[in-house]
Amino acid sequence: MYRCDCKSNVLSVLLYVSECWKFTANIEKRLEVFQTKCLRRIMRIFWPNMISNEELRRRAGVSTISEIIATRRWQWLGHVCRMPIDSIPRVALRWTPQGKRNRGRPKETWRRTVDRDLKTRGLTLQTAPTIAADRAKWRSLAVASSTRRRRED
């Protein structure tokens, strides 16, 4: 019951278009805090009842927000890599703006987040489209990465 409430009412609104977000440690922390607050409220686990966040997610049957977003981002990247070369999302993926950033602008971008995801799987933006053409192999890379991330925690 808790899993359905959380997935249908909370996560669907919270993660709307999350595959296109830049993903910093600060954003990740805020989302994780929000998820645990919501789960504790839905499951009626209040502060006197000491329970770890991992146990809370296990009882609720949900993954961490960062795992969900990483999976969504990986699926979206595969979709974009399979698009025709002249499509707008594919062109935007390769596009590099001219000039320098203004002072104070954030250095983390969506493209750098994607580059980091690809690097953890041993890929680059140039090799990704050929592997994304094979959907089964692309999905296996997403699953392998999420299980590796869980083992590291």
UniProtKB/TrEMBL annotation:
State the source organism's domain of life: Eukaryota
* UniProt protein name: Endonuclease-reverse transcriptase
**Organism whose genome encodes this protein:** Sinanodonta woodiana (Chinese pond mussel)
